[in-house]
Amino acid sequence: MHRITVPVIFSLLLTLLLSGCGKGNPLTVVKAAAVGVPSLAPFFAENSGLGRDAATVRSQPVRGSLQQGDTPGLYGGSKQPTICDVAGLERFLTDPRNHRKAQAWADVLHIGTDGIPEYLDRLTPVLLRHDTLVRNHDYKKEKAVPYNSLLQAGIAILVDEQGLPAVKCSCGNPLRPFEGDTGRISVRFEDGNKKWAGYEPESVVAVKPAPRKLERVALVDVQEPSRGINRPVGTTGEKDTAFDAKKRRTVPDLTGRTFARASRELIEAGLAAGYAGQRAPLGDARVTAIDPPAGTELPFGRYVTLTVAGDGTGGSGGASGPTTAPPPPSGPHVSSPGTPPPSSSGPSGSAGSPGSSSAPPSSAPPSSAGGRPGASSAPPSSSAPAPGSSSPDRGSGPPTATPKTSSAAPPPPPPPSTTGAPASSAPATSAPATSAPATSAPATGGPVTGGPVTGGPSTTVAT
Length: 463
Fold this sequence. Notes:
Elements: H1 2-19, E1 28-33, E2 66-68, E3 75-77, H2 86-94, H3 99-108, H4 116-121, E4 124-128, E5 132-140, E6 143-151, E7 156-159, E8 165-168, E9 173-174, E10 176-177, E11 185-188, E12 205-208, E13 216-221, E14 227-232, E15 241-244, E16 249-250, H5 259-268, E17 272-275, E18 287-291, E19 297-298, E20 303-308
Parallel strand pairs: 1-6, 1-11, 2-12, 3-13, 5-12, 17-20
Antiparallel strand pairs: 3-4, 4-7, 5-6, 5-10, 7-8, 8-9, 13-14, 14-15, 16-19, 18-20
């Protein structure tokens, strides 16, 4: 009996652990979609030649599971650009015989059926270079049925003007961004989608939109990685131009920048922004270190890891705080001399960086941002006084630095015994009790360095 009970209990405990039972952030079930395996409920017949995947592509390593759609080298291409027949997809969806299917397809993308041709004209065919999480859709009972999916590297897709996956080429299924926690997924390899060679949980990515519309997509040739491809948005490869992906790019000095601005500078340099840990830092978190250091020369698309103050994600373990700064105290008499507002890794008014507009104008700049580019939001004159200065808002009466004494006692002849000096030579409030803020240093000195962890054949990722 003992031999039977122990394995059963162990199995139950393991199941509860993998299912995320008792946690506020449960695992998200994700269906794997392998190269060349047909969808069971496609919008478009898989054998029609609408799209061609590349079976030889292996998922590339990443630093950070959430990447912007304009990240250099995020997607691939080849000298044979006809990986997706966009014109064929348009003919199918605009055929009156397929109106119901077109209506369901358009509803997923929040457009009307009459807007399908214009929408498709703005999409660009690419090949995935990473195993990529998306919100996929099957066509069942004349409706689009959503489900979370992991697309294998090498699958051909169409991306929109902000670099987001929009259509799976082989079946025409519409795609939307994955909205779950990339570190808490349970990948199911079912319906012929066996675990593929080269699958690594650490290489799984989700894509977030680029902050602005793209004019071109910078690709890496999946057959010749030393060859880069500039593909104008909305073209299918006929206007591609090649560039040397081996050419070295210099890592800029990004210390003191916000994470959003540092990412933008790396992208403009042809490099990818990476981060340590499971969650991407907030856009206004301040960069404290870069790896490799400034001045290093790297090929196109290589990752540069950005370390930010605290954990930079707004979690309870870091000092960066939420996206918006907490409201200021309600009363005018709460600021004590020598007690500046707590330091934060939030924005200091860096112009043009996404996410920097969320902090109110009265937010004090972080203590490490002085003199750096982008740190221009000095607090207004109504903010807390500098250490050591007196506060005019402490009260409405005159200063009380000189206390009253008994030297003006009545003049009877006997000399006073103990009243020649005041009871206290200085007021009780001459020095504030809290001359330094309790939060002047972040609780943790660096970012969380854990990465996503996944499990067995129906691979479970849990942290």
